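Quiz preparation item.
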């Protein structure tokens, strides 16, 4: 990978990845609707609204690989999700195809699987159970990735990111924490693994309390360095200060993703 595009470069995850990816991919191109406030002299930024196909084609020009973080990163109104995460994601994959991009790493989300209960460990073959419109949009992105991989030959890795940060800060994050260096390792697999067609993996570190079976990531060469259990005492102490949420505390998607707007039959869901 000589030229790599990072979309969503002004967001929280994108801001951290800028410094982590630059030493690996010196010709790293950044993109977002607005430029990062701390853009450095050695960084190249190309503005683009993902809903504007012409703008997306422009930023994909000459790229070997793309790390696609761009979009709306939490739950929101359908119109917002549609524009940023559905139309925008389609534009990104289609523009990449038109411009001959070889690889795409798609930042999916654990919220694709949010309505699975926490007591059940699941792998990548489990039936998706999105917990929000946002989760549905990420499932759509995974589908696009599979389509463009198999029909158009772009190597695609979808990473169902758990919680990205320096350490897990509560009980839920002990199961889904993703150390920044470990995300970089997964990104490198997506951009550099020979003969990659389409793969889905969970974006988590070495978490003893994990709800996900990440065997496929290990088969692809992933060796996470972060260990959530190293922070267990601190995280569990912090958990005591958080309010209870019967719905959010039961499902993997947590609060507020599962409990917000919930008016389903909780008792019936618990029997599944």
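Solution:
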């Amino acid at each position: 990978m000589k030229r790599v595009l990072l979309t969503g470069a002004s967001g929280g995850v994108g801001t951290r990845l800028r410094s982590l990816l630059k030493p690996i991919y010196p010709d790293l191109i950044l993109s977002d609707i607005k430029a990062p406030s701390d853009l450095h002299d050695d960084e190249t930024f190309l503005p683009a609204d993902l809903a504007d196909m012409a703008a997306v084609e422009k930023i994909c020009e000459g790229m070997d690989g793309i790390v696609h973080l761009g979009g709306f990163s939490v739950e929101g109104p359908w119109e917002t999700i549609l524009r940023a995460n559905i139309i925008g994601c389609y534009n990104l994959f289609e523009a990449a195809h038109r411009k001959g991009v070889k690889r795409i790493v798609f930042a999916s989300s654990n919220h694709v699987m949010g309505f699975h209960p926490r007591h059940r460990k699941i792998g990548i073959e489990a039936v998706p159970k999105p917990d929000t419109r946002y989760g549905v949009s990420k499932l759509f992105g995974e589908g696009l990735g599979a389509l463009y991989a198999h029909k158009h030959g772009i190597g695609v890795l979808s990473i169902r990111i758990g919680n990205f940060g320096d350490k897990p800060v509560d009980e839920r994050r002990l199961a889904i924490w993703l150390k920044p260096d470990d995300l970089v390792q997964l990104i490198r697999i997506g951009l550099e693994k020979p003969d990659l067609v389409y793969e889905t993996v969970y974006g988590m570190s070495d978490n003893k309390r994990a709800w996900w079976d990440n065997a496929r990531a290990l088969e692809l060469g992933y060796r996470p360095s972060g260990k959530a259990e190293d922070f267990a005492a601190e995280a569990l102490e912090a958990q005591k200060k958080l309010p209870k949420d019967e719905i959010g505390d039961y499902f993997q998607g947590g609060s507020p993703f599962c409990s917000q707007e919930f008016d389903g039959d909780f008792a019936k869901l618990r029997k599944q």
